[in-house]
Amino acid sequence: MGCYSAILTSAILLLITPGLIPSGWANRHAVAMRRMAIFLAATSFTLIVCGVALLLKFGPMERNAAIESSTSLLGSGFYWDALSATMALLIGAVGWTILGFACRNLDGEATQGRFLRWTLFTLGSVLMLVVSGNLLVVLFAWTLTSFGLHQLLRHYGDRNWAVWTARKKFVISRLGDLFLLAAIWLTYHEFGSFGFAEIFASADHARRMGDATWSITIISTLYVLGAMTKSAQFPFHTWLPDTLETPTAVSALMHAGIINAGGFLIIRLSPVVSLSPVALGFLAFVGGFTALLGGVMMLTQSSIKRQLAYSTIAQMGFMMLQCGLGAFSTAMLHLVAHSIYKAYAFLRSGSALEEAGRTDPKLLTDRKLSFRLAATAGAILVSAVICTAIAWLFQLDLTQKSGGLVLGIVLVLALATLLVRSFATGSMQISLQSVGIATLVAGCYFAAFIAMNAWLGTSVAHPSPGDTLTQAFSIVPLSIGFVGLFALESILSWTERNRMLQIFYVHSLNGFYLDIPARRLTGIFWARFNPVP
Fold it and tell me: Start and end of every NADH:quinone oxidoreductase/Mrp antiporter transmembrane domain (predicted)?
């Protein structure tokens, strides 16, 4: 097991150590920094792959590495299992890709060396966070990640809005640090240890004995609040859409990596958090509301990057909803898929307008109302049949899965969105092709869920539907909310001019002005009377 510690420590130090390089030297030796960044990212990823290979051969490392090896990270150890290995692979692959993009995208900039230095440091901090086996190291890595991101957000220090956004994020992050610090302190007093292995063993005993206390509810709620600040959940979401003054590579790193830290924290601590139905219910409510709010605001954005930012808010909200429903394996699948997609979307955002110019979908506004309704109803019906058939094929009973009904309804509506425009063309060939694609997508999703659930195994909690208070009370309101979002998107595609929709569009475009309190708080914190630069 000491081999695990050596590999993971090396992978982390390779990325974090460049943070010690002075920015002036890094900027003067940009070519050397580019070569070093790619080499270190590739080497770190290779070490992670070796760690995964050892995991497959010898099984998870679930005991404190400080007991087993003197090479442990800060004497605090690692928790190397399927969950941490998946996250490490994701961070290594996405980080390597983003660094390769940044070396080309920022070529010739005077501060490229500084950017690469802090990008490597931030990647190393996130990697430390996901492989840590001790809550104190998690807090340390959590803080380092925020510090590294703050430096990246201030990369263009001459841009007032970039500096202001970094300050707003700084204030929200410090609030998250307080939540996490309080939760860790109470966890130690409740479980008598900072180590994950000991905490999870005690949590499992409490679950079997039905001995969950109110202190566990308080602890779980504090972890949820800390995760909300990191993963841009309402009302802590307002900093994310304002971070677009940074290089594209920073946006990709944030939306594909750092933003997942909150979700990972909840999934990692699922054996503890799942003991509290109150905390899960709160998380499901906030996540569902954030998903709906982000989805609505995304529909009205004219800027491609702001649209992607609100999309991330919505997707993180949906991931938190999945966690709140107890579907931790599904949430992990969502996290991985979203990270890969969002990194791709940001890195290719420069060609989005060119591709949009080649796309000319036939709008539903060309059809009568009766045809629009028939196309929409038909799309929903076909989607429901596809999902039911594939679930039966994979022998999955959604009613026996945590959050299965709610997530099933969301999947049906997502596929219906794919199908409705094809049905609106009136072309049988296009409609059949879309049905085939929808069937393939649904099949891949169910297969990926089964694979992820089997891979994670005991790395996450698997509460039964009866274990979650949210199951009974969340199905109806959440389903109504997502159906309402689907209806709104349909209405927007049907209607070209409507006075009420135009008013709603303006408010949604401005984020319903929810960022004003955060701006004022930032202004107070930084001793500025004017909250807008």
Answer: 132-359
Domain identity same for 256 and 314: yes
Confirm whether 258 is domain-assigned. Answer: yes
Rounded Cα distance, 264 and 130, in Å: 8
The region that residue 513 occupies, defined by phi over 0 for left and psi between -120 and 50 for alpha, beta otherwise, is: left
**CA-to-CA dists, residue 209 to 212, 274, 276, 278, 326, angstroms:** 8, 14, 14, 19, 20
- Using CB atoms within 10 A of its CB, is residue 480 exposed (0-12), middle (13-18) or buried (19+)? exposed
Over residues 177-236, the pLDDT tens digits come to 999 999 999 999 988 888 898 899 888 888 887 776 788 999 999 999 999 999 889 888
Do 204 and 125 lie in one domain? The reply is no
Are 257 and 167 found together in one domain? yes
The predicted structure's pLDDT at residue 65: 44
pTM of the model: 0.88
Residues composing the chain:
533
147 vs 240: CA distance, rounded Å: 16
Structural domain boundaries, residue 421: 361-491
Helices of type H across 70-213: 82-105, 112-131, 135-153, 160-191, 196-209
For the chain, how are helix, strand and coil distributed in percent, rounded to 5?
Answer: 80, 0, 20
Residues 341 and 368 in one domain: no
Two structure tokens written together for 332:
């992990």
531 has pLDDT over 60 = no
Q: Euclidean distance between the first and final Cα of the chain, in Å?
A: 53
Q: What's the burial of 45, exposed, middle or buried (CB within 10 Å: 0-12/13-18/19+)? A: buried
Q: Does 109 lie in the same domain as 11?
A: yes
**CA distances, 355 to each of 228, 401, 405, 417 (Å):** 35, 40, 36, 20
Q: Take residue 491 and report the two structure tokens written for it.
A: 């209405």
Give the span between the Cα atoms of 412 and 386, in whole angstroms. 8
Instruction: Provide the token pair at 477.
Output: 């309101």
Cα angle 313, 284, 167; round to 5: 35
Q: 431-436: list long-range contacts, CB under 8 Å, 24+ apart.
A: 435/382, 435/386
247 in the same domain as 102: no
Q: Say how many C-beta atoms besides its own lie within 10 A of residue 10's C-beta.
A: 16
What is the enclosing helix (H) or strand (E) of 218? helix 214-230
Which structure tokens are listed for 234?
């309402």
d(CA 73, CA 79): 11
Number of domains the chain contains:
3
